[in-house]
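Question (not urgent): is this output format expected?
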Amino acid sequence: MNSCGLLKGRERITTTMNPTSSNILELLDTVLPIHNRNRVQVDYLYNYYKGEQPILNRIKKIRPDINNKIVENHAYEIVEFKTGYTFGQPIQYIQRGKDDNPNTSSAVSQLNEIMHMNDKSTKDREIGEWMFVCGAGYRMILPSRKGNLSPVRFDSMDPRNTFVVYDAGFGREPVLGVTYVESELNGEPVVDYGVYSKDRYWLIRENGIQERRIIRDLPLILGDIPIIEYVANPSRMGVFEPVIDLLDTINNVTSNRMDGIEQFIQSFIKFVNCDIDEKDFKNLSDLGAIKISSTDNKKADVEIITSELDQTQTQTLIDYLYQTVLTITGVPDRQASAGGNTGQALTIGQGWATAESRASATELMFKRSETRFLNIVLNILKENDNYKELHELSIQEIDTKFTRNKTDNLLVKTQGLQNMLEAGVHPREAFAHANLFSDPEQIYNDSKEYLEKWKFSKGSETNQKPNPINELE
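Got this back:
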């Protein structure tokens, strides 16, 4: 058992209180203990991911001089695969809906440019890494200071000092976002809490004896809480959390295997019916040979006590443990055989289909939080006269698009795109669902003049009629 006890996901922090200036200190007192429990677990999982695992504290009572402590960091392998597979390509915004409004399309493209200016793809990856390590990641967004090129500024936050409080009632809407910094003031330790509700901001300072007081109390006009929580799954579990005992076992078996090899090499020497002093034994070690004589007319002999670990059975156990870990976490086995030689058979047999379904489930959770993030972005942009083109853009007109595997099954994807266009699917929707481009909205805008032929239905060249489903303008 690890030092945190049974790991089963992070606890959702809830309250029945409506945050106000009169009760915010009391509310903070009630939610911080829950966050602190989560924080201990997050810290443990993050250190585990970086290689600080229980095997490093291993104590060996028999032959303690041979005590290998080997970390096979499969937790790192799992998190890096999940992060790269889901967030390896930039997340793009595309126009949602069937109306081909040039103004909306241009506004969505401009929104993507603003995200690019803020290096959003890198920050998405950081959030994704936290999600897969400990089950939750956080983003904070605020208006930019004057003079900045971008109208908004946002960053990923550390879950160990950031959390969101939800209403315990129906809907479980967020009511409070908190982030804090530990520092020193006049040689004394202090903690400054930035606390945000939907309409107010409080700066609360805690001194060394945990006395808290409000330093600042200001109105907030963003329209929502600027701290957004992104969860990997409803249980808020990290991806390697369900298999952490199996990972510990792999480390233990591997370390014991190395102990067995060393103990075989450094075997004890048994002397039968002969007497040998320290000098003679040193000669044996240096020269590799020794002359012995019997005592009491009994046969004398020197033997090496050997007991080698069965490496074949050990490898079978490690292979079983590793395969179980991959199956539970939804990571493909790149050495497995599907029993067929077709691309689809390999995709299913090696576990790539499972990996895709797990990534799609993560996308759904991510998009829910991304909608809240976008709503705050649009509220900020509506207050900026330099972005009037985006003032009419609504959250209903934007969809979030994840992109993966652009070159695999290329022929199948291009045929699918052509079939959708021929069937009368709008080119924007066809580009988005063909999964060929990282920015389908931009590709659609660039390709409009080449898509003119899809404005007409199939028929004779002399009797072509406009097809309202595919009409681009």
